[in-house]
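Hey forum,

I'm writing up a methods section and want to include a predicted complex as supplementary material. The small molecule is pyridoxal-5'-phosphate. I've pasted the protein sequence and the SMILES. Can someone with a working setup run it? I'll credit the forum in the acknowledgements.
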Amino acid sequence: MDKKSPLPYADQTMVTLLGRDPARHSGSVSPPVERTSTRVFSTLDDLEAAHSTGKLSDFLGSATPDWLEDAVAQLEGPGSHVLACGTGMGALAIVFLSVLGSGDHLLMPDSVFWPTRKVGDGLLRRLGIDVSYYDPMIGAEIAEQIRPETRLILTESPGSNTFEVQDIPAITKAAHAAGVLVALDNSWATPLYFRALDHGVDFSISAVTKYLIGHSGALMGTVATSGEHIARLRDTANQMGSGCAPDEVFLALRGLRTLAIRLRHHGEAGLRIATWLQQRPEVLTVLHPALPSCPGHEIWQRDFTGCTGLFSITMSRLSRAELVCFLESLKLFKLGYSWGGFESLILPVYPENERTVTPWTQDGTVVRINVGLEDPGDLVADLESAFRQLAKFGQISKS
Ligand SMILES: Cc1ncc(COP(=O)(O)O)c(C=O)c1O
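Reply by user p_vandermeer:
Happy to help. Structure tokens for the complex are below, copy them as they are.
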């Protein structure tokens, strides 16, 4: 049994058991996909009782997402309730629109996922919500950024592309002392490696698109929260007409079965490759939470129970031609957005164009790497061969 888990078995066993009950489905090992838009009732009393629960699937739409919600709630920890949403972005938007209204203030880390920043600067500002950004390494000093009208602090740990690990317990302590709620984009760690609600977070958001689905086959998101907030989230989701398709939930439940063993592989292979990259002359820094070169590494050691397969490196500043040569020489690492699937991906990222309160001053070209499920030796060989191509441009070194 996992030392930290209140569940009866280790995570690897739990993910095989949760979100299904063969006894309810003629022995079928997985819940059948229920495709429906409505439910019919024999009595008016039954119809009205179903309508009054506040749960849409009690009277309208598929109940297949309930299996996923139930499984994720158990992984997120005791007392948690989960809402499944059509995408990770949808999960973030539902939290924002449930908590914030005109005149309220939202704090976001300067390392936030770029599309989330766009929601803050676009949709939320249009609705009269003020958004400001803070240094992701701020810790307890977040208290100084809290205003009387602050209602929510978004955290994302590690930060998108630059991987700063945030001091979530310090932030939640300061926030709660001021009556402010805290949301965390926990997509990188998943509840298997960071139990957000146990660390004081009010809304634990995951882009299920990434590791839980794990096969690059669908988009989905979840929000976990306490009983206090779940009705509000469901109500917002219902008013927005947000939901997820039962066939895609089936893919998520299938992904769940192998989540623990996949994450272990992503973590081990990612760390092996990150450590190898540290020794390369072309690489200036490796931004991987499990390595001391990453801001907040000690916090990762203190609070997380594992690492996954997404990290960045800064390389000696590359010209466009050098960058194109390096990226396009790779055969296994494909150029693509998103991450968390079985396939390795690579992407140049530009934190210098995104930051507004903590300018990105590190020298070099930043490249984000998603380590998939291929053999790590093959992935190292792929990178090594691309570095050899790059060498044709002349000496590229740490100095
Ligand atoms: C950190 C983070 N949060 C949220 C999302 C959004 O997830 P989705 O693609 O399911 O909308 C992403 C997607 O890349 C992400 O990287």
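Some notes you might quote in the supplement: Residues 11-257 form a domain with the Aspartate Aminotransferase; domain 2 fold (CATH 3.40.640.10). The mean pLDDT is 95.
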